[in-house]
Amino acid sequence: MKTTLTRNLLATAIASVILPVTAFAADPKPGGDIIVTYQNDVATLDPAIGYDWQNWSMIKSLFDGLMDYKPGTTELALDLAESYELSDDGKTYTFKLREGVKFHNGREMKASDVKYSLERTANPKTQSPGAGFFSPILGYDAVSAGDTTELEGVTVVDDYTVAIELSAPNATFLHVMGLNFASIVPKEAVEEHGADFGKNPVGTGAYELGEWALGRHLVFEKNEDYYKEGVPYIDTITFEVGQEPMVALQRLERGDVDIAGDGIPPAKFLQFKNNPAYEGLMVVGDQLHTGYLTLNVTIPPLDNLKVRQAINMAINKDRIVRIINGRATPANQPLPPAMPGYDEGYEGYPFDPEKAKALLREAGYEDGFTTELFVMNTDPQPRIAQAMQQDLSNIGITAEIRSLAQANVIEAGGVQDQAPMVWSGGMAWIADFPDPANFWGPILGCEGAVPGGWNWAWYCNEELDEMGDTADAMVAEHQRDDRAELWGSVFIEAMADAPWVPIFNEQRFTVRSERMAGDESLYVDPVHVPVNYDYIWVK
C-alpha cells in the first residue's frame, strides 16, 4: 500500500502533546444502516495479513492499536495507549494502556495482548507482509530467523503497562504502532480459529463482524461496548461484494447504495463530475501517492545522467493528467504534497523537448536510441505509456512498450537488467504511513535495490541513505521540523541524479449518497483508506 507526527525525547508522558482520537463532525446523529459496494470479495480481515486498499479501512474499524490518527488527517494520536513515555536515550517507549477496553468476545484487553499481537505479526509462520515494519524492535532479527517467538524488546510491566525497546532511536516507530499490522488481537480467538481468524476477526474496534456470506456480503455491527464514547454512529454497515462498479454507481444514483467503494468508472467520471445534480456527492482528497516512471540507472544508456535528465524534460505531464480526466496533479518530486518534507519551492525538471534533445547530443546520442517501457496492461495505463512513448519519440528515443500483467511488470522491475523503464501506474507507491521515510527505503533507497525489490530504478546512493538514517534518529519533538527538512533534501538531491520521472500525484474520489453526512475528509481519509467508517453518519 498499499503515507506528521509528534515526539518527545524527555521521559515524560506526552498525552498533552498527542491527543486521543476524538470525533469532530458537527451534530452527528447516531443510528442508521448503510450499504457499501465493492466488485471484489474481501480476502481477509486478519490485521496481520490484510494489506490492500479494500480491506484496510474495514480492518481499521474492527481493530485498534496503541496509536492511530486524528480522523481525516495524518496527525498521529493516542488510541489504546492512554499515554507513553520515551527514555532519555530515545530507544524505549513505555505505553500506559487504557483500562476497561474489551475485545468483542467480552474479555478485557491487557498488556500481555499487546506483546502477543506484536510477536504474532513478527513471527514468520504468520506470513505477515507487514512483519518487516517491526524490525526496529530489539530482538526482531531472532524472531524473523525463526530462532525464537518472543521479541526481546517487548516487556509486560504490568496489566496496563508495556515497554518496547528499539535497537536504535527511530522516529517512525509511533507510526508503525498505528499500522493495522500492530492491531491488538486476543490469543484465544486466534488459536480457536487458526488460519480462519481472518474470516472470524475479534478485536476491540468500533464495529464487530456480524455476518460474512462469502461472495455476497459482510455485515459490520456497532460495538456497543466500544471504549470511545459516542462512536461509531452507524448501527450496521453492509458491504455488498460482486457489484460491477457501473451498476453500483447507478444504484447509488437511485438511492439504493450509500457508498460506491470502487469509485467512479473512468467512462463515467466526467459525466458524473460535471452534472450539477450530483454536486456534493463526489468527495475529492489528496493521497500519499506519486505515480512515476523509473529509469534503471544500471542499464545503458540510462546509466548516463544526461540521458535521464533528457527523459525528465521530454515528458508532458499535463497531457498525461488529461488522459485520466484530471484526476491528479502534475508532480515534480518523489514526495507527494501532503507528505512532511515536500519542498514547495522546488521546480523540478521543466517540460522542454529542445533542451532534452541538447542533453542527448551532449551525452553522445544525437541519433537517439531504442529502449523498453514496461507497463501494466490495464486501462488507462497502456494509454499513458503510449503518451510517454510519443513524447520520447519527439526527442529521438524509441521506446518499445511491454504491456504485461501487473505481477509480470513487478517481477521484471525486480530483476536488475530486465526493465529499462517502468511506468508505475496501477502499482505506484501509496505510503503505509505519513512519513517520508516510508517513501525512501522501499522504492529509492539501497534496501529496495535488490532482487525482487520495489526500487525498480536500481538507484543506490549510500550518502543519501545515511542522511535518511540521521533523520530517523531525530526523535525529539523540537527536531520534528528539522527532520522533515532533512528528509526533503534527501529527495531533492536524489532528483539531481534523475532516477525517476515523477509524473503525477493521483487524487482519491469517493462517491456517497445524499443521506450520508460527516466531514468530507472522512470519505477520503489519508490513513483509514479509503473511508473512516467510525465517524461518518446518516443524516
TrEMBL record:
InterPro entries xref list: Peptide/Ni-bd, SBP_5, SBP_5_CS, SBP_5_dom
Domain Solute-binding protein family: 77-448
This protein's record includes keyword Kinase: no
Molecular-function annotations in GO: peptide transmembrane transporter activity
Signal sequence interval, chain numbering: 1-25
Protein's GO biological process: peptide transport; protein transport
Domain of life of the native organism: Bacteria
Record keywords: Peptide transport, Protein transport, Signal, Transport
Pfam families the UniProt entry points to: SBP_bac_5
GO CC annotations, alphabetized: ATP-binding cassette (ABC) transporter complex; outer membrane-bounded periplasmic space
Family: Belongs to the bacterial solute-binding protein 5 family.
Name recorded for this polypeptide: Peptide ABC transporter substrate-binding protein
